[in-house]
Design brief:
CATH superfamily: Glutaredoxin
Distance between the termini: 28 Å
Shape: globular
Number of domains: 1
Largest sheet: 4 strands, mixed
Main location: cytoplasm
Oligomer: single chain
Pfam family, one: Glutaredoxin
Number of helices: 5
CATH topology: Glutaredoxin
Helix content: 40-55%
Strand order of the largest sheet: 2-1-3-4
Strand content: 15-25%
Domain Glutaredoxin: 13-75
Subcellular location: Cytoplasm
GO cellular component, one term: cytoplasm
Number of strands: 4
Length: 100
């Protein structure tokens, strides 16, 4: 869990993803299209990816990918990110935390 906290604090936008997940691809594309430069961790490629995935599950993330943190705060998965985007809250949040 401590390693996860360090990873989350690294940058204003952190995405936990898997290359094999289509929703992960969609969320990464959304942020990249906005011009955000997120830190992206591909849990199916990195060392201790399963351990990090378990820590995300302990935080209540279900499913465990994609999971987005903005400004160190857990935003959630694809549904939560898309809801913020559709109600026009995502861009102001990204600006507030210096991601845009």
């Amino acid at each position: 869990m401590e390693k996860l906290q360090k990873m989350i604090a690294e940058k204003s936008v952190v995405i936990f993803s898997k290359n094999s997940c289509c929703m992960s691809h969609t969320i990464k594309s959304l942020f990249l299209d906005f011009g955000v430069n997120p830190t992206i961790y591909e849990l199916d490629e990195i060392t201790r990816g399963k351990e990090i995935e378990q820590a995300l599950a302990q935080l209540g993330c279900s499913p465990t990918v994609p999971v987005v943190f903005i400004g160190g705060q857990l935003i959630g998965g694809a549904n939560q990110v898309m809801s913020l985007h559709l109600n026009r809250s995502l861009v102001p949040m990204l600006k507030r935390f210096g991601a845009l």
